[in-house]
Amino acid sequence: MKKLFFAIFVLLRVVGWAQTTDERAAVIATIQQMFDGMRAGDSAAVHAAFDPSAQLQTIFVLRSGTPLLSGEGIGNFITAVGTPHEKVFDERIWSYDVRIDGNLATAWTEYTFFLGENMSHCGVNAIQLFKSAEGGWKIIHITDTRRREGCRTEPYNDKTAINEMLDAWHHAAAVADEDAFFGSMTADATYLGTDATERWLRDDMKAWSAKYFERESAWAFTPKNRQVYLSADGRMAWFEELLDTWMGACRGSGVLQKTAEGWKIRHYNLAVTVPNEVIKGFIELVKNATEKK
Length: 293
Description:
Radius of gyration: 26 Å
Structural class: alpha+beta
Helix content: 25-40%
Low-confidence stretches: 9-18
Number of helices: 7
Largest sheet: 6 strands, mixed
Number of domains: 2
CATH topology of the largest domain: Nuclear Transport Factor 2, Chain: A
Shape: elongated
Oligomer: single chain
């Protein structure tokens, strides 16, 4: 009976996960339909992505520093898309953060808008969608921000950026670059060392390790066999890696967060690896050491 209950529980979890994944894909497909229609100048395709009651709003800042909010219905927007224009309306989406509850969905998307080949502006879209029984997901509201500074113009590979950041982080310790090492961690980052007592917040670790960073090398860990995983919204990541260290083979794992300054470490766990064939001797050694304390 217990096995049957567990099997049903697992099946429900799998079905629920699949349904959520399918709904997320459907939400993104509706949003992409709008942007694809913009690029093609296809006002009918754009119109079909919206609920008739949809509203558009824009938040921008005047040169004086005064923030403004403007809004309108979708009519003028659809007309502009369908009116022949020399330069393509090309809004490039860099990430999707989709949240769904029943028939309501929200999507937070980073974008850069191009007129033809020329970058116009960038910002984020906060998009709300409603799922009706007849038409599926339709956009009911979009609020966007607009700026011209700090705009991304090319896609980049997050996993490559993460690997480069982690390699640079380990190198910073190897050459005792304190600023680069701790600057690669969020202010609330946690570092777990190999000893059970070694749990530091970033600034506590910085104070503890100050004497090591006064040397030519604080410590030198060489990473290899790293695996990186990304969250669906592209804002969090986690990883695991093997390390060659003065302690022998170790394993590091952690969580990263995408910030305005790029990827940073939010949590790191350093563990000594012990081969299975010597684990009993290791346990006895630790036991004896603990008893002597």
